[in-house]
User: What shape does this take?
Amino acid sequence: MVSLATRRIVLKGKLMDYITSIAIIPLLVGCMGIFGLFRFLQWIRMKAYIQDSVVVITGATSGLGKECAKVFYTAGAKLILCGRNNERLEELIRELIATNIKKTHRPHAVVFDLAESKTIVPAANEILKYSGHVDILINNAGVSYRGTIMDTALEVDKKVMETNYFGPVALTKAILPSMIEKKQGHIVVISSIQGKISVPFRSAYAASKHATQAFFDCLRAEVEQHDIEVTVISPGYIQTNLSLNALTADGSTYGVMDKNTANGRSPTEVAYAVLTAVGKKKKEVMVADLLPCLAVSLRTLFPRLFFYIMAMRARKERKGKTS
Ligand SMILES: NC(=O)C1=CN([C@@H]2O[C@H](COP(=O)(O)OP(=O)(O)OC[C@H]3O[C@@H](n4cnc5c(N)ncnc54)[C@H](OP(=O)(O)O)[C@@H]3O)[C@@H](O)[C@H]2O)C=CC1
Ligand SMILES: CCCCCCCCCCCCCCCC(=O)OCC(=O)COP(=O)(O)O
Assistant: This one.
């Protein structure tokens, strides 16, 4: 015989089950709805931020810069594409126009060499004369390097530094007053995981990216008062021509597609990550696999272990070259 008390408990349990099953479903649906609405509003805000904005991209002739051109153009930006080779820029412009059904803003090419400091202010003036102002400046162009510190000519260290650090710094300084005057602007820089950790045989490149990270972190704090955003993007390996174009100890081009580069992320995926980071006004993002991200934490939390691993890596690489 089941007692009355037991029957009451069972009934109460069933009632609770019924209420929770009824309540949980609408609650879950409600939460998903709110989340979906939040994401939708975020997307609308991002779209409005990029659409019709004047976006300057350096290094647009290749790799990540070229893909950024495509995703920002599709998002409706007025592009100013910078590079050293006018023909390749014009070819990209023709490609963009051909793929755009809506035929929005015709991109404009500005040709200059970031490693030639005297060309930067005239280039910035040309940009400002053409568009009146710049909403988003994407400092993407860069060159990598492979070599031992002992064998590398100082001129090579300087060339890498000029391209990756002094060039973007000079361009940013030339554009910044117009942003301050407008009380609006967004400066983006494509750094690298190597702006946070240094790996052997990349001294000039890692140094230039560490300097980049430091400069733009200072800039972020200094221009906050003018409502200017600064985003530092630190990618891991991307499938581009970076290793092919890297400089070696004597200044010649490396000319090898590295395994890490070939197995890296697709430039399109990284370009979308750049678009999202800009749209969400992120201060900084790492676009990399787990291991490089862990290596960054290891460098901070357990530096001795990190340095040991790097020394092992250097030994292994040296052995690989001599055998
Ligand atoms: N690929 C990777 O694994 C990673 C790349 N990055 C960074 O991404 C950025 C883009 O490189 P990525 O697309 O990979 O490499 P690419 O070599 O494919 O592209 C580099 C771009 O920079 C331009 N550039 C190089 N030197 C100069 C210069 N002196 N003046 C003007 N433009 C110059 C190149 O122009 P040109 O065609 O005239 O040579 C090219 O458009 C770089 O800052 C790089 O450090 C960061 C992390 C990983
Ligand atoms: C808690 C466990 C942590 C384990 C950490 C182990 C450390 C492993 C070392 C990983 C090194 C990652 C280096 C990543 C470098 C990188 O992504 O660089 C991006 C670039 O800029 C590429 O330029 P490059 O010219 O070098 O091709």
Q: What stands out?
A: The chain has a mean pLDDT of 95. The radius of gyration is 25 Å.
